[in-house]
Specification:
Helices cover 41% and strands 16% of the residues. The protein contains 12 helices and 10 strands. The relative contact order is 0.14.
Length: 344
């Protein structure tokens, strides 16, 4: 029988790639050992942190209404509707056991594709797609746009408009000639064929990352997004784009412009936001093209990863599911079929 010392010697003989595979395997085993009962209790505590309330009308006048498949049901005495602890969450209307969702969270955090996740968890590709976006819809609602303060770096980046996932059999007509993956827009420069992603990051690491329009950004777009989400005492750092100058005047914000050809002005610069854009583009590339109508979910996927990157691996899997069950979101499959691109 091998001892711990024997295992240590075997591990020392492994290559860096083999050690990484072993680490991922151990994390996967530990994440699967998260018990369903403990998770269910945490889901309930986070969803009803302000007390038990009807998710349909908001009334707190609710009574227990029996159990179904070991799930406690409730009845609202005001609107008469019934619900359970997971109604209107990523885990509502699912026949899959909680263990599969824990396993799927591991696949998402490992960066697996929808197809690979389906093979790993043991579901079909279509189910894997809905599992991913049900979780991301709820995570998006849980995180929200966010707020920034202090020294705030603002900039925008662009992603090609994509009609991936829209099929002719559903009556969809492509409004432009198709292009190969990795292709470029038909027009040079910034055009309506590109989605503008407005970004803000402060020195505490708080992030705002939202698809705001197609084509060039304007000061009205910036005001629509950031008003109420940026502190009145914030100092904004931007490039020389004129829209930011007008935006700063409208909101009476102190404005530090980094002129073309310069990198910084003392402690004021936009290096963090540029680094965030570079990190995001390298990360999104692994998915081999994302449809614009689901693009906002991937922005929040990336944003959530930035917020939990310092957590332990096992905590990431648990929190990923807690984020996916804390908010009240309609995640019925029907609402995904006719989804339109979402801009703030």
């Amino acid at each position: 029988m091998q001892t711990v010392h024997d295992l240590e010697e075997i591990i020392k003989s492994l290559s860096s790639m083999q050690i990484k595979e072993l680490f991922n395997f151990i994390v996967e085993i530990m994440s699967r050992n998260i018990t369903a009962s403990n998770l269910s209790n945490e889901f309930k505590e986070n969803r009803f942190s302000n007390g038990e309330a009807c998710m349909h009308c908001g009334s707190t006048h609710v009574n227990k209404h029996g159990k179904l498949k070991d799930k406690q049901r409730y009845k609202c005495m005001d609107c008469g509707k019934t619900f359970n602890d997971l109604t209107m969450s990523s885990l509502s209307c699912t026949k899959l056991p909680l263990e599969k969702w824990v396993h799927y969270a591991h696949c998402m955090l490992s960066g697996n594709s929808i197809r690979k996740s389906a093979q790993t968890v043991g579901v079909c590709v279509k189910t894997s797609f809905y599992m991913r976006h049900k979780l991301l819809d709820c995570i998006r609602a849980y995180i929200g746009i966010g707020n920034v303060e202090g020294i705030v770096e603002l900039d925008e980046t662009f992603q090609l408009l994509s009609y991936k996932g829209n099929h002719k059999k559903s009556g969809f007509v492509l409004p432009r000639p198709s292009r190969h993956r990795g292709g470029s827009a038909s027009k040079r420069g910034i055009s309506s064929e590109q989605v503008c992603i407005a970004t803000a990051i402060d020195r505490s690491g708080n992030i705002i990352l939202e698809p705001i329009c197609t084509g060039r950004i304007s000061h009205t777009d910036l005001e629509r997004l950031f008003k109420g989400h940026i502190s009145d005492e914030a100092i904004i750092c931007t490039d020389s784009h004129r829209s930011y100058e007008q935006f700063a005047k409208e909101l009476a914000l102190e404005h530090k412009r980094i002129m073309r050809g310069r990198h910084k002005n003392g402690i004021y610069h936009i290096n963090h936001v540029n680094s965030l854009h570079s990190l995001f583009k390298n990360w999104i590339r692994q998915f081999k093209g994302v449809s614009t109508k689901y693009f906002i979910n991937y922005l929040y996927f990336f944003k959530a990863l930035q917020y939990i990157k310092e957590e332990k691996e096992t905590a990431k899997h648990k929190n990923w599911l807690i984020y996916g069950t804390s908010s009240f979101v309609d995640t019925r499959i029907e609402q995904y079929k006719q989804r339109k691109p979402i801009f703030v």
